[in-house]
Amino acid sequence: MRVYNTQQKKTLIDFLQANSAKAFTIEEIIESIGSGVISPSTAYRLMTKLVEDGLVHRSVKGNSRSFVYQFISNEKCEGHLHMKCTDCGKVYHLDSGTTSIIKNDIKNSTSFEIDSHTVLLGRCNSCKK
After folding, report:
1. Pick from 10, 36, 89, 104: most CB atoms within 10 A?
2. Which residues of the chain have pLDDT under 70?
């Protein structure tokens, strides 16, 4: 199957890469990029593909029905735990050493084994302020 790299897709990826420390709703992305540059339907279609390709992480924003999207960069999302802010939706990747310590401590104290897709929920430093 042929992969098409349109200017809209490039613009979307460039924006997400430049702002990889933050998670955005589609509406926030369109507003930041410029409404004339990419339409909502195109943004949703491209974002779905980027999530499927593993370049972008999609999560629920707080307790709402909105989704936020965050560029994963070159980090592999396998083999380590994640932390997710319940307010802004930003996802943080724990390094493999910290993941190993947490998983081993829980396993040794409770005989419960955590899988690597587990997401720890809490509030990030920015949202606590």
Report:
1. 89
2. 1-5, 73-78, 116-117
Provide the pLDDT for residue 41. 92
The pLDDT value recorded for residue 74 is 57
The residue type of 30 is: I
**What Rg do the C-alpha atoms of the chain give, in angstroms?**
17
Name the one residue in this structure whose structure tokens are 């104290």. 109
Q: Which ranges of the chain would DSSP assign to H, the alpha helix? A: 7-18, 26-33, 40-52, 96-110, 125-128
Sign of the CA dihedral with 118 first, then 122, 94, and 106 last: negative
Contacts of 91 (CB under 8 A, 6+ apart): 23, 57, 59, 70, 82, 83, 84, 119
pLDDT at 2: 47
Task: Give the residue among 33, 30, 24 at the shortest CA–CA distance from 90.
Answer: 24
Compute how many other C-beta atoms are within 10 angstroms of the C-beta atom of residue 3: 7
The position carrying tokens 């990029």 is 33
Q: What separation, in Å, do the N-terminal and C-terminal C-alpha atoms of the chain show? A: 48
